[in-house]
């Protein structure tokens, strides 16, 4: 027995209207505009009913005497004829054709008495929840939406019409429906009952209605019949095609209507829809070819409507006004004389604002009888007929969108702010070249000679337009809300905060009203929580691909979260977050070059249909190598296998999705499948190999993996005493500091090391002084270009007198400058690197000594600068000294991040000193002592601990700190350099996107940090791994494979720095990965000796090699063999797993020495490094004879790399030793880190990168040419 297909195209098919069982029941009450003339049937409105409801497993007819077809769905040996006979009324006269009687000939109710007809008319659906996939509540209310203006009978035949519905159940889940109303001619006659005129269906005595001669009181009328197809997927146009085909058959033979209904429904409920990706499904429906295209991304619905209608209806100004109304959550009513256009336009706007999701009542078609809902309180999005405009205009506080006239009318009581100007300007420019009127495009084209050609051409134009418009609106949404990401702060692994105050202050003044309304909306809150939970949706991917270089052009800053005074920088780079690309479609529709079409087998009957479909998919999987195609095929086969009663095989297909595209992993479907599996099936599942290897299915019930996101307003000051942990959180929330060590020093400063808490008054004063200084600095406006891009004002003095006149002194990260009073003159006094010393003096003025600060310069021709700072002198002396010390140390250590740390210290020192002036603060009595805790670099400079040897300074170029903001520093476990290229992605359509060189840093925390290797600025973070990432390798030009201690290999896309594929077949922690020379084969090793051999194109393991070792730490692919390092020896293994030879390293006493690393040089030599002492041994690659031993003074050798005929050897003492590869002599010794060298890599023979252990936690970049 087959189960339900979880991704079926059709959920149910319904028929709504009037028939002999419902009779012509007048609607109560009648519409206000109805003409009350009971002598003719055409002036009254009638109440339609649900006549049929058919799903994959049940066929119900609620108005008929026999309500359910007992033989549906058909099984072997049960014919349609038996089904039809079973549903005939007992004692019913034979008719011209076999029929179940719904909407059949009028004779069948001619003899029914009034009480029986009344009972039949009031019937509602009464079904069990499992019988129909649509809720009973939705079905019982459907008639009102199928006939929004009631049902009328007509003298003449009306043209068939289509409209669309969006149905929302009590849980908020939406279903989509297409309604096709056609007209059928019937005979009715007048009947007097209790002195009242009623209309009933007349008995035609099996005559054709055209042959019937009318008698007095009889009328031939055209009766509306609405066929409804409901789906959980918005294939509105596809459903229109299906219903058009169905109605065409019904019109040809109306007596067989129910047979057609059941046949269509059965096929459409067994038709799967494709998952997201470049795949579509084709199937034949009664000689009509239907194409189901897929969504562009798993996080958004498929678009099957023409998005050009809003562009034809509205000016660009009004279109953007509607977007602003939706984003600010106004009460909006759309109007049109066409119900079909209402839903199409409203659905288009919901697509335009993606990823924002409308969280409030959404009724695209509001029936006349429910018009009072417009006056309900709260936010809503509704649509109604334009004839109701006079009534709607009486409601206050709403926005009326007239689709027919293209006008947008805003209530006088509302203020709708405009969208921010710069993103809008870019959007206008991007959409200037679109042509929404397809007829203008077709003028230059040749004529289509068949209906099918017309359909295909129209579909091609619609899809082309939809792609461009969708991408353009995505670009608009990214430009509007890109800055949200920079204001999400990670306090702890499970706590994240959004700084709303800072987000609003960072906007341009004219844009602030818009954002003030948006940030308080439910849609924004949902959007924000998705960002906090690191949701990987299309918005995030587009944002990453268009992330402007301008935002990362701040030289010397490793992370935008490190920026000091971001609001001040925002004033000079307000437009940097907005980017427009030439063709945004290439950033969205970029999975592969061509869409693959999968043709479903011919649907002859239900028997074996799923099996035949699975066989066709299996054939395609055998020939397909691309993960972008294998993933949707596995998804489809998994769904079909579950549907045909093979759940374990279906779950195995879902498991294999992880190696192709984890975004398609159907978590909800798997949960449903597991919940209904029998005991035998569950036993079979737990015994299966894939279930034992994967934790995915066990994780399904653990939804606690998402971060508990918190959306708060910044500014809340603690109301009670707080200990250090609470203080650490609070300081990060208000963004006074982020570095853990800095916050420790600030806590000691405020408590003077005497108490273990900070009182709320001290905290509040500290925060107020911090903000006060920020405001003062923001009021200073240097001329354009005076400050460098990453330079901002840290401190501005009070009015003072100096050698240059009267004015103010200002300090930045790089220099002191003077602001002359009464003019806009900004004069540089001295660069911080040129300060030789500071002297506190008493400057005589009118015979009175004034406290002054004298600044001496290293430049001989530059005289000392004297500033009479009065009571500010000591504070300024401390600030300038700390900033200058940080600048000097940063240049000494080649670590520009120290400049930002010193600037942070300066701001904290100033806040501590200013708050200490209040006697209510805990550090009031010892202000200078409290401030001295924060002068970290001043002390380090005085102690002289940051001096590098000349050789090291000459070779060292730069340092970066991947452990910024981390409470516990982590080791840099692996480093990898990838060169820049134009594609940078496996997607052909991304070929025009230039991606620069990158440095990948794998951390002991499981994160992988990616830096721009030209500016050394942080570009992205990969945070999906659940354990330490210990190895990185580039596979081809588009992928990085990251091996983790969680037994998983994450396949990371270089362009997006995301992993949609993961390989989970290892049974122990990953230790290393290597690839063959042609990159077609990869080898991954576990600590337990397991080596898996992978096909890198299919992402499938081909076989495995098992070595009987205790610790397999490293592997290398050399000349067709695997070289495996096991700490005790090196084992050379063939590709098939055969052991060729072993290499042991022993000391003079013949004791085995550990081998922590080895290197094979072009000179056919093997260099090995001992892990417990500074011993380097060189061997002949072929004979394994020892050539030479060299010793260095260190705790052990940890890493080796070869560049420019030199071997760079990293040690556990933090030193790097450079050997000549030809003569084996030590040429240079570099002081690299304060901890062991844990990782090394090279960059195109130009640079060497070294990563340190957790005590140091930094990466050093070295110039190979100067070594």
Automatic annotation (TrEMBL):
WD repeat copies, ranges: 1063-1104, 1230-1267
* Identification of the protein by name: UDENN domain-containing protein
Q: Where is the UDENN domain?
A: 105-538
Keywords associated with the record = Repeat, WD repeat
From the UniProt record, give one GO term of the biological process aspect.
regulation of Rab protein signal transduction
GO CC annotations on file: cytoplasmic vesicle
Does the UniProt entry include the keyword Repeat? yes
The record's section on InterPro entries has: cDENN_dom, dDENN_dom, DENN_C, DENN_Domain_GEFs, Quinoprotein_ADH-like_sf, TPR_DENND3, Tripartite_DENN, uDENN_dom
Residue ranges for the region (Disordered) are 83-123
Q: Which GO terms describe its molecular function?
A: guanyl-nucleotide exchange factor activity
């Amino acid at each position: 027995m087959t189960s339900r297909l979880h991704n079926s195209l059709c959920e149910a098919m319904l028929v709504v209207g009037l028939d002999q069982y419902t009779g012509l029941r007048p609607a109560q009450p009648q519409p206000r505009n109805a003409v009350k003339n009971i002598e003719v049937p055409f002036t009254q409105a009638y109440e339609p009913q649900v006549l049929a409801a058919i799903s994959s497993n049940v066929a119900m007819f609620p108005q008929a005497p026999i309500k359910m077809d007992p033989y549906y769905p058909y099984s072997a040996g049960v014919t349609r004829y038996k089904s039809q006979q079973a549903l005939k009324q007992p004692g019913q006269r034979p008719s011209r054709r076999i029929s179940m009687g719904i909407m059949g000939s009028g004779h069948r109710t001619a003899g029914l008495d009034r009480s029986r007809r009344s009972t039949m008319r009031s019937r509602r659906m009464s079904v069990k929840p499992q019988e129909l996939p649509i809720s009973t509540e939705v079905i019982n209310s459907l008639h009102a939406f199928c006939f929004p203006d009631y049902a009328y009978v007509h003298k003449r035949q009306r043209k068939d019409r289509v409209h669309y519905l969006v149905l929302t159940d009590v849980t908020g889940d939406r279903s989509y429906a297409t309604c096709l109303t056609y007209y059928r001619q019937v005979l009715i006659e007048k009947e007097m009952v209790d002195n009242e005129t009623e209309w009933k269906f007349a008995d035609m005595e099996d005559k054709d209605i055209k042959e019937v001669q009318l008698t007095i009181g009889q009328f031939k009328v055209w009766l509306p019949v609405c066929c409804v197809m409901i789906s959980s997927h918005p294939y509105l146009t596809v459903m229109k095609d299906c219903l058009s085909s169905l109605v065409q058959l019904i019109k040809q033979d109306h007596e067989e209507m129910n047979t057609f209904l059941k046949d269509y429904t059965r096929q459409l409920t067994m038709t799967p829809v494709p998952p997201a990706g470049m795949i579509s499904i084709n199937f034949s429906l009664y000689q009509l070819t239907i194409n189901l295209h897929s969504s562009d991304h798993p996080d958004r619905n498929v678009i099957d409507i023409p998005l050009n209608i809003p562009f034809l209806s509205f000016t660009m100004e009004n279109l953007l006004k509607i977007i602003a109304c939706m984003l600010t959550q106004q009460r909006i009513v759309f109007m049109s004389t066409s119900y079909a256009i209402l839903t199409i336009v409203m659905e288009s706007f919901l697509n335009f604002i993606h990823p924002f999701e409308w969280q409030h009542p959404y009724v695209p078609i509001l029936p006349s009888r429910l018009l009072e809902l417009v006056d309900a309180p709260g936010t809503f999005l509704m649509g109604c007929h334009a004839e109701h405009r006079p009534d709607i205009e009486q409601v206050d506080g709403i926005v009326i969108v007239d689709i027919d006239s293209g006008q947008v009318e805003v209530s006088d009581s509302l203020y709708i702010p405009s969208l921010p100007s710069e993103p809008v300007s870019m959007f206008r420019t991007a959409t200037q070249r679109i042509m929404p009127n397809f007829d203008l495009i077709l003028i230059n084209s040749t004529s289509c000679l068949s209906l099918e050609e017309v359909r295909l051409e129209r579909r091609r134009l619609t899809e082309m337009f939809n792609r461009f418009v969708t991408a353009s609106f995505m670009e608009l949404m990214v430009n509007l809300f890109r800055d949200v990401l920079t204001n999400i702060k990670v306090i702890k692994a499970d706590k994240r905060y959004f700084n709303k105050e800072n987000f609003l202050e960072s906007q341009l003044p004219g844009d602030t009203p818009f954002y003030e309304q948006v940030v308080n909306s439910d849609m924004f809150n949902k959007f924000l929580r998705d960002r906090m939970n690191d949701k990987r949706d299309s918005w995030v991917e587009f944002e990453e691909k268009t992330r402007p270089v301008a935002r990362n052009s701040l030289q010397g800053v490793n992370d935008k979260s490190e920026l000091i005074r971001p609001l001040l920088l925002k004033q000079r780079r307000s437009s940097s977050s907005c980017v427009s690309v030439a063709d945004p479609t290439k950033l969205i529709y970029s999975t592969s070059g061509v869409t693959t079409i999968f043709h479903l087998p011919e649907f002859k009957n239900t028997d074996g249909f799923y099996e035949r479909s699975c066989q066709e998919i299996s054939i395609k999987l055998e020939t397909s190598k691309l993960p972008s195609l294998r993933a949707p095929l596995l998804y489809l086969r998994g769904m079909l296998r579950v549907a045909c009663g093979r759940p374990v095989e279906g779950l195995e297909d879902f498991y294999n999705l992880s190696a192709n595209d984890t975004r398609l992993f159907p978590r909800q479907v798997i949960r449903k499948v597991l919940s209904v599996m029998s005991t035998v099936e569950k036993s079979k599942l737990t015994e299966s190999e894939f279930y034992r290897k994967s934790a995915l299915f066990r994780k399904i019930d653990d939804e606690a993996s998402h971060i508990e996101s918190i959306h708060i307003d910044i500014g809340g000051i603690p109301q009670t005493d707080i200990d250090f942990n609470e203080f650490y959180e609070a300081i990060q929330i208000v963004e006074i500091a982020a570095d853990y060590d800095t916050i420790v020093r600030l806590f000691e400063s405020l408590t003077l090391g005497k108490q273990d808490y900070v009182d709320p008054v001290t905290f509040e004063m500290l925060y107020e002084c911090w903000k006060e200084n920020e405001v003062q600095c923001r009021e200073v406006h240097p001329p354009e270009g005076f400050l460098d891009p990453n330079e901002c004002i840290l401190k501005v003095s009070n009015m003072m007198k100096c050698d240059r006149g009267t004015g103010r002194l200002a300090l930045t990260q790089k220099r002191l400058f003077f602001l002359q009073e009464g003019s806009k003159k900004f004069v540089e006094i001295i660069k911080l690197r040129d300060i030789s010393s500071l002297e506190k003096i008493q400057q005589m003025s009118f015979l009175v000594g004034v406290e002054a600060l004298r600044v001496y310069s290293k430049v001989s021709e530059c005289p000392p600068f004297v500033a009479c700072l009065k009571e500010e002198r000591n504070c300024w002396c401390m600030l300038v000294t700390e900033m200058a010390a940080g600048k000097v140390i940063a240049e000494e250590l080649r670590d520009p991040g120290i400049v930002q740390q010193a600037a942070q210290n300066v701001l904290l020192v100033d806040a501590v000193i200013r708050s200490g002036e209040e006697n209510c603060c805990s550090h009031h009595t010892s202000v200078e002592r409290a401030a001295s805790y924060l002068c970290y670099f001043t002390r380090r400079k005085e102690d002289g601990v940051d001096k590098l040897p000349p050789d090291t300074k000459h070779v060292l170029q730069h340092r970066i700190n991947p452990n910024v903001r981390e409470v516990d520093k982590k080791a840099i476990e692996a480093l990898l350099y990838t060169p820049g290229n134009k594609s940078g992605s496996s997607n052909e359509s991304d070929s025009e996107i230039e991606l620069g060189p990158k440095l990948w840093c794998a951390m002991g925390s499981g994160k992988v940090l990616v830096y721009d290797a030209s500016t050394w600025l942080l570009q992205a973070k990969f945070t999906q791994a659940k354990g330490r990432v210990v190895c990185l390798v580039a596979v081809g030009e588009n992928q990085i494979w990251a091996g983790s201690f969680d037994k998983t290999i994450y396949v990371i896309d270089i362009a997006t720095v995301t992993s949609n594929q993961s390989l989970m077949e290892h049974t122990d922690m990953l230790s290393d990965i290597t690839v063959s020379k042609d990159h077609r084969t990869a080898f991954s090793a576990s600590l337990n000796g397991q080596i898996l051999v992978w096909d890198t194109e299919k992402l499938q393991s081909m076989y495995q090699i098992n070595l009987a070792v205790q610790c397999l730490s490293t592997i290398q692919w050399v000349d067709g063999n695997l070289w495996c390092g096991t700490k005790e020896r090196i084992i050379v293994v063939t590709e098939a797993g055969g052991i060729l030879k072993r290499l042991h390293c022993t000391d003079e006493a013949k004791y085995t020495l550990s081998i922590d690393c080895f290197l094979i040089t072009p000179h056919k030599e093997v260099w090995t490094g001992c892990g417990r002492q500074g011993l380097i041994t060189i061997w002949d690659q072929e004979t394994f004879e020892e050539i030479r031993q060299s010793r260095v003074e260190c705790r052990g050798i940890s890493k080796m790399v070869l560049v420019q005929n030199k071997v760079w050897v990293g040690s556990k003492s933090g030193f790097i030793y450079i050997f000549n590869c030809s003569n084996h002599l030590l040429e240079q010794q570099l002081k690299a880190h304060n901890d062991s060298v844990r990782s090394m890599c090279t960059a195109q023979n130009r640079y060497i990168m070294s990563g340190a252990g957790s005590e140091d936690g930094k990466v050093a970049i070295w110039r190979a040419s100067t070594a």
